[in-house]
Design goal:
There is one protein chain. By secondary structure, the protein is mostly helical. The protein has a domain of 178 residues. The protein contains 10 helices and 2 strands, in the order H-E-E-H-H-H-H-H-H-H-H-H. Strands 1-2 form a two-stranded antiparallel ribbon. A hairpin with a 2-residue loop joins strand 1 and strand 2. Helix 1 packs parallel to helix 3.
Length: 268
């Protein structure tokens, strides 16, 4: 798990990479309706250490028995290569690249915060997850398009969300509240993918689509479970491996529920 430990070094030493523009110069910023303080950033950096390192170790172990050993191995190797690339961008690049990575990191924090607001508005976790997974899938597909075509497609996707929410039983009031957040989320994620770090992530997402289907599906589910653990964690303490395990079980239950509902609708 060498690259995972390098990711820890990347996070723990993040602010040292800026030279004179260190952590003491971080400012409180508000963008896309989400305010992030210097403490929020340092807490999130610490959370990366507390959360992803034990999670990746767990995924690679026999305790994580949802997939065969070879599939788990390929999954952890994929994450390790991604972390290695981010590490190189931070420590082998210039100050501009390091700042770009920090920008990406802060946009990720805002993305998670916006999903929390959507969850509150929708008022049903199974529905929130279904909407989130469809949104993320479509957004990944949009990144495969020429850069000039992406913004229009994101805007079109945002406009479809009221119908998507209505079809899943979200109330008119909840849909109206959530739609504001979907609009901001579209803008936030578009900016996130425009960073150099976001472009790197996008390249790895393209690579993931070319892997054997079981590996690609496991990668997607691990990322989704990680995001859901962060979205739903209780309190301000860092998310832990236990949060990932809880998240994984919840998502599995939600997917089974939607499959059952879909089969019921088809037989009517």
């Amino acid at each position: 798990m060498r690259a995972s430990w390098r990711l820890l070094g990347c996070c723990c030493l993040w602010f040292l990479a800026f030279g004179s523009a260190g952590a003491q110069e971080l400012e409180t910023t508000t963008e896309f309706g989400v305010t992030i303080t210097p403490s929020d950033i340092t807490d999130a950096v610490s959370e990366t250490q507390d959360f992803w390192t034990p999670v990746l170790k767990y995924i690679g172990s026999d305790q994580f028995d949802v997939a065969e050993s070879a599939i788990r191995k390929q999954t952890t190797e994929f994450f390790n290569r991604l972390h290695e690339s981010l590490y190189k961008q931070l420590f082998e690049g210039d100050e501009e690249q390091a700042r770009d990575l920090l920008d990406y990191f802060c946009l990720r924090l805002r993305k998670i915060a916006l999903y929390r607001k959507i969850r509150v508005a929708v008022k049903d976790d199974a529905t929130t997850v279904a909407l989130m997974e469809q949104w993320e899938k479509t957004f990944r597909e949009i990144q495969l398009l020429p850069a000039a075509d992406r913004q229009a497609r994101v805007e079109a996707m945002v406009k479809l969300m009221p119908d998507e929410m209505a079809a899943r039983g979200v109330s008119a009031e909840g849909s109206s509240q959530a739609q504001q957040q979907w609009t901001l989320l579209g803008e936030c994620m578009s900016k996130m993918y425009r960073t150099k770090a976001g472009a790197l992530i996008s390249k790895f997402e393209v690579e993931a689509r070319q892997l054997e289907r079981p590996v690609g599906e496991l990668l997607r589910k691990v990322v989704t479970a990680g995001d859901w653990a962060l979205i739903t964690k209780a309190g301000s303490a860092s998310a832990k491996r236990a949060d990932f395990e809880r998240s994984w079980k919840e998502l599995d239950q939600f997917r089974q529920k939607h499959q059952t509902t879909a089969r019921t609708v088809e037989t009517r």
